[in-house]
Every structure is written in C-alpha cells, then in structure tokens.
Write a structure and sequence with these properties.
The protein contains 8 helices and 14 strands. The chain is an alpha+beta fold. Strands 5, 7, 8, 9, 11, 13 and 14 form a 7-stranded antiparallel sheet that branches. It has a 3-stranded antiparallel sheet with strand order 6-12-10, with no helix packed on it. Strands 1-2 form a two-stranded antiparallel sheet. Strand 8 and strand 9 form a beta hairpin. Keywords: Membrane, Transmembrane, Transmembrane helix.
Length: 371
Amino acid sequence: MIRKTSAASSTPQVEKKAVASHPGLPWVILAWVGAFLMLSWLGYVIALRAGVVQAAQESSETRSRLSEIIPPDAGNSAPLPDLTFALPVQAVARNTSLHTIIPDRPRTSAEKYTVEAGDSVFSIAQAYKLKPETVLWANYDLLNDNPNMLSIGQELKIPATDGVLYTVKEGDTVESVARQFKAQPEDIISWPGNHIDIADPKLVPGKEIMIPGGQREMRSWVVPTIWRANAGANKTINAACDTSGASAYGTGYFMWPTDNHSISGNTFWSGHLGIDIAAATGAPVYAADSGVVVYAGPIGGGYGLMVMIDHGNGFHTLYAHNSQILTRCGANVSKGQVIAYAGSTGNSTGPHLHFEIRYMGAFVNPLDYLQ
C-alpha cells in the first residue's frame, strides 16, 4: 500500500532538522573571540615585561660604566669649572640683609628740641655734634646768649651744622650777610637747606637761612666782679657789703668746692665762663680757698642763690644755684669751710654747682686751677 505524502507537509520537517542539528554555534564563536583577546593581552604583558627588564639591564650597565669614570665621592669633592664671561662684568658686591637699613643722611634744616631735666647748652650741643655757641646763637630769643637762662620745657632750635641761623632782613644780600657773620658767600649759596638759586642768588626777607661757619659777637651775661674794700684793683662795681674788717687771704691754690669732682652739663667755653659740677641738692659746698665773702644772697642772671669770695690776691671764686647759704657778706672764710648747700635755684635744669674762678676780673678755666 502506497502512503501519499503532501509537499506542504514535507518541507517544514526538513527545516526543523537543520536547525536542530547546530544548537551551540553562537557560543563557539564567542569562545573563540574571548580566547583571541586573552592571548593578545598575554602577549602584550609579556612584551612589556621584557621591555622593563631590558631597560633595567641597560640602566645597570650605564651605572656600572659611569662608576668606572666618576669616583664614589664625586658629589662632595668634584671641582666645578670656573665661571667665565665673554665680556668683562662691572658690579658692586653687597651683603644680603634681611632688615631695612635707613641711611644716616645729614640734616639740612634746623629741628626742634625740648629741654629736659639735667640738660645744659653744652650737653645738648654735644648730643647733636655741634659747638655750644651754635645752639646759643640759634636761640637768642629764648636765652639772650646766656646759657644760664636754659629752663625745662623750653623748645630750642637746633641747626643742622655749626654756624649762625639767621632771618633775612630787607636789603640783605648774600655778600653782606657773609661779611656780617665772617663767612663765605659760596657756603651760604651752596647749603642745601637754604634753597638759593645759584644762577640768581637772591635772599628773601623773612626767610631763615643757615650761615655755615658763621660767627658773631656774643652778648655777655655775667655777674660783675665784686672787690673787697681797699683792694687796690679796678672794680667792676663797688663792694656789695662792708668788708673793711676783712683779713683772710687765699693761698693761690684751689681745692674742689664739692665732694664730687665730675662735670654735669656745661664745662668752660666762650658762652659759659665757668663749670657745672655734679652735686645733689643739699650737698656741702666748700670755699675753694680762704678769703672774704663779698656777696651772699639771691642775684639775677639765672644764678639763683650765689656766694662770691674775694681771695685778696687778684682771684675771685663764685658759687651759684645753691639751695641754702651758710655764710654772710663780709665774713672771713677759710679754705674747705662749708659756705652753702648745693641746689637748683635760678635758671637750672637740675641740681648742680655753677663754679667760676676769675683773675683780676678776667674769667679763667677752673679746671686749670683745681687740685
């Protein structure tokens, strides 16, 4: 018996068998791709490692060759080549400083200074490296050329250099001012603080200028010399008290009038015709030599309480700024006798003894006579 089979039914059966015969084909392809990638990565890693090893070997060989040429301590001892320049170099050597250094430039104009306790014209001038006359001349309106007029709190003008500080008057010229103060016209013109036009050196009335090296006569402010009766010498003024019974005479040799032998402030100079001896208030003041007291009491000129002794041999001694006087006018005193207590009366910036020695009315430096 023959079985008939239709064409429509046979075709699907064949396709089903073909598909069913290869069920894992996609997975095989993926496996091959993964294996390829794995082999490629492994090859890259092997090549990279080989390159690193080779580079390390080359570096080791290089260090070995260099060690044969360069000694082991070359980093500490190997000399460097000298630095040379094709062209000469001009330079100024300067040490490095971490701090700002303010240059000490000289002053060209006057500055103000307020007087303090213990000051003197001489000590102030020393502090500014000036002559005391320069300070005195610049402050005539306050001191009138008298250093004993110095007082605490005064505001002084301190010139920038030695000479005269001058206020120009109507009609003044550089030449006339230079003649007046015995200075050189060129010095006045060239002083930077004067601001004078070199091409047309005219002075402006009312303007204050510096006259470097200038000088002028100083007004004398001193206590007149007082002589004992019948002294046989020219008298500055007559005796201030009756000394007719005086009989004490000096030896001509002078002892220090205080226990302290040091100068405090003014020493002997043209504007201060005596010395200021350091002495505390109440310290004893001794007669420097025997003689007769010709003045004992307060007096003007900034001296305060003062004692003057005529030694009968042409010499006089003067003791000023005392706090108390222990003798009287007309009394005989012996060398070393306590005649007063030191102080700061009159014009004084602190306790001290102002001491003078005069010979025949002329002022002499006490430091040349004290023993």
